[in-house]
Amino acid sequence: MKKLEIVIENPTGLHARPAKTFVNIAKKFSSDIVVIHNDKKAKGKSLISLLTLGAETGAQIQIEVDGDDEDQALEAIKEAIESGLGEEELIQEKETGGTQDTIVEKVQEPSTVKEGVFSGIPASPGIAIGTVFQFKRADLVIEEKSSGRKEEKKRLQEAIQTAKSQLKHLNEQMLESGATQEAAIFDVHVELLSDEEILEEIDAQLERGQSAAKSLQYVIDEKAKVLAGLSDPVLSGRAADLYDVGYRVLRNMLGEEVGSIELPDSPVVIFARDLSPSDTVSLDPDKVLGFCTSEGGPTSHTAIIARALSIPAVVGAGDNILKVLPGSQVILDGKAGTILVEPSAEQVKQAQVNQDQERTRQERMLKIASEPAVTKDGHRIEVVANIGGPADAEKALQMGAEGVGLLRTEFLFLERKTPPAENEQQEVYSKILEMMGRFPVIVRTFDVGGDKPIPYIQTPPEENPFLGIRGIRLGLANPEIFREQITALLKSANCGNLHIMFPMISDIQEIIEAVQIVSEIQEELNADPVKLGIMIEVPSAALLADIIAPDIDFFSIGTNDLTQYTLATDRMHGVLSKNLDGLHPAVLRLIAQTVQGAHQYGKWVGVCGELGADPAAIPILVGLGVDELSVSVPAIPEVKEIIREISFDKAKEIAQKALKCKTAADVRALLNQS
Ligand code: PEP
Ligand code: MG
Question: Would you say the CB of residue 560 lies under 6 angstroms from ligand 1?
């Protein structure tokens, strides 16, 4: 065993993001890692465990590492702690007079109450007109007396097992509705159910003679409290998830109804302090016209699920909404974030007109989803899907996708101990290609690394993982795995219309090497050539588009990364990422330059980042000459409809004006005027 005494010097101590960095590094090694502070021990690979240590800046901690790679592990951890556990940006914030907390306060504006009008944070668009149902969960009656440790443990394990299958079902339900990313929320819940630290602490309570229900409630409440108190909003938001999953197990144990709210027969607008992600996913859209919560934020999992289910919602509307009398009539506007209590007859009439217009538009959109997206003056844009696996492909076709613009292959590589075998990969690729028939399927080679550690690829710890060995860099640095993926792809090519795309290209040399590998394998297999393209996610690639264009077949702009690298703002940053906007003129100029460079050589350009589905951005992207938009499956019908509503000439005019704007806000204002 190796030991190290070290002082934590980064500004917030072992909290939030630094703890996340610590865990990511620890997980790269097989050795057992324990962190000790003030006689409290934490598991170095459990985020919850480390967070609850409460090691502030200046704290002396002891690290014990035991196992085959203990030397390397200890060295990596030491280096990471000495270099501040990724907290440079906080030091700068302090120097410029701000702290994370003050910024959070500014972002989460308190709701205001006017006469009969409440306002909160818009969480899911749509208008709901109906009567209020105030929802409050009944308090649970918990038996504290143990019926014996063995018996209680069995009860707990059974309740956890039931919770796991419920969560699996919810995950599948979301996948079926095409909401892949939302489905992953329930994978996180399953992961929380397996957190070593939580299970051990429950065990310790059981040993003390507590019942399983009491032990579970105690540990979940304690841990959720610690998480909720963290200043990083992303991490503190996870308290709601821990609470949700913990109480799911508890209700299972007590034989209570789980995940469904008992509602009156006629549809209602739910008012509640908060709804958990599980509550929300179980809402029946036929019975729930909309919901409003006094707590919560727009990035909570509850808000994300409401959007996926198309239920209008307003969150964070303040405690006063809980005083609205049940049965009152309300108009909830999920786009504006307002709730009008006891509206006038005139106001109801107007809301009904708006609602009808929107409903007709939605129905029309779905009916003609499979038809091409052509502007009023005859310019066609291909609308294709971003997918994360075969389940999405089928749904994409139903929603009118004209192909797959981005297959994220990471799902095959993450969460496992060894790389996926060639035949396993080939089977998945072939299935998707077959399903999509003649439509193009753009498969992106694996885009992992840095912040997403994979145990079978050892990379040295990095201070700035987003600027480190990720994307194509990781592929080229691990040629066996990269070659295996290319081989599997080329072997499945005859099942459909395969295109291969390389992520995170920042330098032409990377393209040369990647293309060389593809040609070698093609020759070995005697396979037909396939179209090869690159993602434009780094400003250097956009700036050199005209130099790169002759050597590849297509470009696809990853606006999520292009925006973060152009504006030097981490897209996962708990505070700053909320203000990241792909409509920033600097990003738009890079998109314009990419299109110019590509079109000069007759090559096409797609956009596969989130910006492609932003209704405000679509006219600008079309006007800049983008040929294809690749968006999440549920967004396809609406994206096509927006394209049909614009004229190419007008879009070009707006795009040119946008390129001359000073800020993203100016671009958005420009769109409101036109
Ligand atoms: C992007 O960066 O815009 C993109 C589509 O890739 P990902 O979101 O998978 O990084
Ligand atoms: Mg990307």
Answer: yes
Question: Facing residues of 315 across strands?
Answer: 121
Nearest to 447 by CA among 569, 561, 559, 551: 561
Annotated catalytic, 584? no
Q: Give the Cα separation of 273 and 297 in Å (integer).
A: 12
Q: Which of 442, 521, 448 is nearest to 478 (CA)?
A: 448
d(CA 661, CA 656): 9
What is the rounded distance in angstroms from the CA atom of residue 89 to the CA atom of residue 256?
A: 46
* C-alpha span between 615 and 28 (Å, rounded): 41
Annotated catalytic residue: which of 15, 37, 189, 301? 301
State the Cα–Cα distance between residues 317 and 322, nearest whole angstrom: 10
At 400, give phi and psi (nearest 5°): 95, 20
* Residue whose structure tokens are 């480190």: 468
Q: What is the DSSP letter of 138?
A: P
- Sign for the pseudo-dihedral over CA of 470, 471, 473, 479: positive
Encode pLDDT of 203-224 as tens digits: 999 999 999 999 999 999 988 8
Residue 301: active-site member: yes
Atom of ligand 1 lying closest to residue 556 CA = 5
Q: Atom of ligand 1 at shortest distance to CA of 561?
A: 2
CA of 168 to the centre of ligand 1 (A): 26
403 vs 440: CA distance, rounded Å: 5
Per-residue pLDDT tens digits for 256-301: 776 667 888 899 999 998 888 778 888 888 899 999 998 876 656 6
Q: Name residue 127's beta-bridge partners.
A: 333
CA 337/CA 569 separation, integer angstroms? 27
Q: Which ligand is nearest to the CA of 559?
A: 1
Beta bridge partners of 129: 331
Model pTM greater than 0.90?
Answer: no
Please tell me the least confidently modeled range out of 89-93, 158-162, 165-169, 590-594.
Answer: 89-93
Q: Give me 144's structure tokens.
A: 């504290």
> Is 499 close to ligand 1, i.e. is its CB under 6 Å away?
no
Among 386, 451, 535, 555, the mutation site with the greatest number of ligand 1 atoms within 8 A of its Cβ is 535
pLDDT digit string, tens, across residues 360-385: 988 899 899 999 999 999 999 999 99
Q: b/e map of 327-349 (b: 16 or more CB within 10 Å)?
A: eeebbbbbeebbbbbebeeeeee
Distance CA 197, CA 222 (A): 12
CB 574 within 8 A of CB 15: no
Q: Is the CB of 609 under 6 A from ligand 1?
A: yes
Name the one residue in this structure whose structure tokens are 């329930």.
186
| Protein residue whose Cα sits closest to atom 3 of ligand 1 | 558
Q: How far, in Å, from the CA of 559 to the mean position of ligand 2?
A: 7
Neighbours of 168 (CB within 10 A): 13
Q: Evaluate: CB of 559 within 6 angstroms of ligand 1.
A: yes
**C-alpha 467, offset from chain centre:** 20
**For residue 500, what are the β-bridge partners?**
443, 532
